[in-house]
Amino acid sequence: MPGPWSGQKTKSEGMTLSFWTRRKSIDAIVAGHDGHQLKKTLSWPHLVALGVGAIVGTGIYTLTGIGAGLAGPGVILSFLIAGAVCACAALCYAELSTMIPASGSAYTYSYVAMGEPVAWFVGWSLILEYTLVCAAVAVGWSAHATGLFRMIGTPEALLAGPHMGGLVNLPAVIISFAVAGLLALGTRESATVNMVLVAVKIIALLVFVVLCIPAFDASHFTPFMPQGFAATPDANGIKVGVMAAASLIFFAFYGFDAVSTAAEETKNPKRDLTIGIVGSMAVCTLIYMVVAAVSIGASRTEVFSKSEAPLVFILESLSHPKVAQLVALAAVIALPTVILAFMYGQSRIFFVMARDGLLPKSLAKVNAKTGTPVLMTLLTGALSALISGWLSLKDIAELANAGTLAAFIAVGLSVIILRVRDPGRPRVFSTPVWPVVASGAILGCLYLFSSLPTTTQLYFLYAHCLGAVVYVAFGLHNSALARAERT
What we know:
Elements: H1 14-21, H2 26-31, H3 44-55, H4 58-71, H5 75-99, H6 105-113, H7 116-151, H8 170-185, H9 187-212, E1 232-233, E2 239-240, H10 242-253, H11 257-260, H12 269-298, H13 301-304, H14 310-317, H15 321-334, H16 336-355, H17 374-390, H18 393-397, H19 400-421, H20 434-451, H21 454-478, H22 480-486
Antiparallel strand pairs: 1-2
Helix pairs in contact: 3-9, 3-12, 3-16, 4-10, 5-10, 5-12, 5-19, 5-20, 6-7, 6-19, 7-8, 7-16, 7-17, 7-19, 7-21, 8-9, 8-16, 8-17, 9-12, 9-15, 9-16, 14-15, 16-17, 19-20
Pfam families: AA_permease_2 (PF13520)
Transmembrane segments: 47-70, 76-96, 117-143, 163-184, 196-216, 236-256, 277-298, 323-345, 374-393, 399-420, 432-452, 458-476
Organism: Caulobacter henricii
């Protein structure tokens, strides 16, 4: 007998109720999709590298300084708090990704737990998050690479977007298309390159730590929280304090969710996804705490927080100019790993939504030779290039956290709903103390969302109003479940 959660329509329900209760079956998802399957080529080292590649990037190289300016030495607590919220979300992701080993990440989990309208909202949030992060890192990479482009005679008008008086940020456009092209060649090939670049990035940070330890001065940690703990406006109206820094530093942590988008391409998802998600979070939290601590010990926060490249600044202040240049070069070489990880996730979200009929079905076509959604990958690269080529880093980055927080909240809710509704289903990885952990992810993300600027929250609302229009105009009537109802 069709019920309100079956995704089928009874005579008494009518179209409206059926629309609100459409949801996917876990068994149907796991069974696969004929003609639209991704090739299984990844193992846990690739997944850990994918997660670390996504997490360790612009955040650790730049946000350490900005966060220290907001919280002082208490920025270490900011990293810990942001990491704790993300850890709760990561544990929820680990349970759901191993129980539902299919591409789509939070979008797919929401489709199973809460139905199609919520899944669309979450999918749109992920598109917002991944696209903006790709574009933001492309702009950040461009800022480090402009010297190289000047050496080959690139006109100044092609090194900055209109907001900086130029025509287009050509380096950002080039790196966006370059990463998209690499991904289109094949998942395993791009994952292998990613592992090498992640190693470069980690080695550079290790060198930084080793050189800073001899200059460590414990007195730099006093006063520990000069701006206080809560996020409160200063004389200029800017929120400062440990929690204000935590809401910003949160940007530096997310990226592990990109691992869950690789579920369908993982050889042994039940083992490898857990290692990939939890392992990448553990590695990155440790890296962040150590780097933040030695940064503060080697230089006072009020000094290095004013630099756009705080790690390079600290090394130069310690009379290591050549090593500082190498660390900067490592950032230029390795930052594309962040673009690669998020562009990978973005193309897979697009792919799954198209496969489900919420976006044009033709976008879900997988290349027979590479086993990748080439069209979707190149479209993602084009969107990143368009945004990064003409908009400023500030404009791009403002919405990224909002989309991520919405997705994390949905994942926490999905764990709770499925635990209650389907308690007997086998769970390869079970979230420990799931009521506490899932609630911690939800409440923590809600608090961080409330700490975002009001303008960012409004832009998030406007973006989802646009998404609702797209859904009503196309997805509502063309989704696979909608077509099934009409047959």
